[in-house]
């Protein structure tokens, strides 16, 4: 029995948002429920990413390697920074992700023959890669900041809640790298 891909995508996205909110709202002391929400979140992310298996394994492995390099190096930079400069990037990064989201939706609103569709695709891919790379720096410093608050006893230790931001950054970087590499292979 074949499922409609739009239904699968919609259900997995709604499930991912719901389970992510469950991870965020569940107190760390309730480990079984928190782990169940986290498992559900990762299962929904896997369902959302499953269409990528139709791409060439060479593209997927290169994109995975590049993603590890980008996330690893930017996390290192964020973790070893002398001050909390990247924590103040939240506002500009939110504006950037809004531009990326609107450029992704632009082909639905613009007429079919408009030449600017290539521009909106470039903004979505390369701008998204830059924005989510910035989010890696921001989320890494946010994790370190919250760890300092945990050491002082001002915040409860919650590694699952802290990891979701970096996981989403990594997924978004990976998806964009797969798209960029597949476009280069077609040329």
TrEMBL record:
InterPro entries noted in UniProt: Bax_inhibitor_1-related
Listed transmembrane segments: 6-24, 60-79, 86-106, 118-138
Keyword set includes ATP-binding: no
Keyword Transmembrane helix among UniProt keywords: yes
Keywords: Membrane, Transmembrane, Transmembrane helix
Membrane topology of this protein: Multi-pass membrane protein
Primary localization: membrane
Stated name of the protein: Growth hormone-inducible transmembrane protein
Organism lineage string: Eukaryota, Fungi, Dikarya, Basidiomycota, Agaricomycotina
